Every structure is written in C-alpha cells, then in structure tokens.
Amino acid sequence: MNMQNLMAQAQKMQRDITNKKEELEKMEFVGKSEWVEMTFTGGRVIKDVKIIKSGNIEEDDKDILADMIQIATKDAFIQINKAMEDKLGQYAGALDGLM
C-alpha cells in the first residue's frame, strides 16, 4: 500500500469519526431515577432536569434527592457511553497500525 492511499484512508476515517461525533453530540439521552429525570446531549451537556417526585420534598429528603440526581446522571452517561461505543467502536482498532 502506498503512502498516498494510506493518507487518503486516514483522512476519510478522520472525517467519518468527526461526523459520527457530531451526530452523537446532537442526540439526547434521558437518565432516570425514582425522583429525577435528566436530559443530556451526547456531549454530556445538561439540557433539562425534572423533579418527578410527587408531593413536597422534606428537609430530610435533600440527601436522597442528591443521590437520585447522581443515579439519573449515571444512567444517562451509561447510555451516552454505549452510543459512543456503537458509533465509534469500529475505529478503536483501526488506528493501531498507524500509530
């Protein structure tokens, strides 16, 4: 394989990766817990936070609410990581021979 073909393949792969990352960043992911629903972009930017617990949140519930926010965030990040793996995983081994 000559150097020009190799460079052309690398540039195509870079464009493909960039396009898939941009596509992923436009997607939305909703993380949920019992009390909270959080919406993130694929770039891990918070778009929306909803408290879905009905009734009042008592003073003693603040720690639980914080835990529910963490659970919802983790849920959304797991979804984002999976989508990233689905979209970009095919490129993970492709760069081994080039580096």
Fold and architecture overview:
This protein has 99 residues and is α+β, with helices and mostly antiparallel strands. The chain has one domain (21-90): Ybab, Chain: A, CATH 3.30.1310. 52% of the residues lie in helices and 17% in strands. It has helices spanning 3-26, 62-88; strands at 28-32, 36-41, 46-51. Strands 1-2-3 form a three-stranded antiparallel beta sheet. A hairpin with a 4-residue loop joins β2 (36-41) and β3. α1 (3-26) runs antiparallel to α2. The two termini are 16 Å apart. The mean pLDDT is 89.
Any key phrases for this structure?
alpha+beta, Ybab, Chain: A, 2 helices, three-stranded antiparallel sheet, 99 residues
CATH topology: Ybab, Chain: A
CATH class type: Alpha Beta
- Radius of gyration using CA atoms only: 20 Å
- SS class: alpha+beta
Number of separate domains: 1
Largest sheet: 3 strands, antiparallel
Strand order of the largest sheet: 1-2-3
Count every beta strand, where a strand is a DSSP E run of 2 or more residues.
3
- Poorly predicted runs are none
Mean pLDDT: 89
CATH-defined superfamily: Nucleoid-associated protein YbaB-like domain
Instruction: Please state the overall shape, judged from the principal axes of the Cα atoms.
Output: rod-shaped
What order do the SSEs take from the amino end to the carboxyl end, as H and E?
HEEEH
Strand content: 15-25%
Distance between the termini: 16 Å
Helix share, percent: 40-55%
